[in-house]
Write a structure and sequence with these properties.
Number of domains: 1
Order of helices and strands: EHEHHEHEHHEH
Bound molecules: shikimate-3-phosphate
Number of helices: 7
Structural class: alpha/beta
Distance between the termini: 7 Å
CATH superfamily: P-loop containing nucleotide triphosphate hydrolases
Number of strands: 5
CATH architecture: 3-Layer(aba) Sandwich
Oligomer: single chain
Strand content: 5-15%
Shape: globular
Radius of gyration: 15 Å
Length: 173
């Protein structure tokens, strides 16, 4: 299993960060959280970047963080939910590794995310409605980049991670 990075994509609340940690530990690879990289690069939390730079400003930094993974030690990378929005990002994900789509429903995502203050796109009382329309708009994009699709609803992070690892074995065999 040595064909570049393993990218976890999917909607907010799909469990990408937690599952990435479990998969990375099992595969003995570094674990990279793209949102954390962006926050470290700009010395601000995601919510502040959205507030000060706007969503496009955040997306620019997200694309830059993704680009910087080229040539790095193969890692397990938890991507922000919107990474698939830009064509250039989708092309880069495909080129730099294997893409795993972690599936969650909008209802489950909102329930899991809880305090949506850290997810500015789901903030406020309209968060639930926003989740439904955002997920509907993105579903096809997630599937278009995915080499592997894993359902997360009603399953623990460990169960999801175990399936990811076994599917990767088959895809990368
Ligand atoms: C976003 C998802 C967030 C974060 C930002 C935008 C999105 O990451 O990148 O708030 O557009 O779906 P998570 O998917 O890790 O919550």
């Amino acid at each position: 299993m040595n064909r570049g990075h393993v990218f976890l994509v999917g909607f907010m609340g799909a469990g990408k960060s937690t599952v990435a940690q479990v998969v990375a530990a099992a595969l003995q690879r570094p674990c990279v959280d793209l949102d954390s990289q962006i926050e470290a690069g700009s010395h601000r939390p995601v919510s502040q970047i959205f507030a000060e730079d706007g969503e496009e400003g955040f997306r620019d930094q997200e694309s830059q963080a993704l680009t910087m993974l080229e040539g790095q030690t193969p890692a397990v990378v938890a991507c922000g939910g919107g990474v698939v929005l830009r064509t250039q990002n989708r092309a880069l994900l495909k080129r730099l590794g294997t893409v795993v789509y972690l599936v969650v429903t909008a209802e489950e995502a909102v329930a899991r995310v809880g305090d949506s203050a850290t997810r500015p796109l789901l903030a406020g009382s309209a968060g639930s409605l926003a989740a439904t329309s955002l997920l509907a708009a993105r579903e096809g994009l997630y599937r278009s980049v995915a080499d592997v699709v894993v359902d997360t609803v009603g399953r623990t992070s460990e169960q999801v991670a175990a399936q990811v690892i076994s599917e990767l074995d088959e895809v990368e065999a």
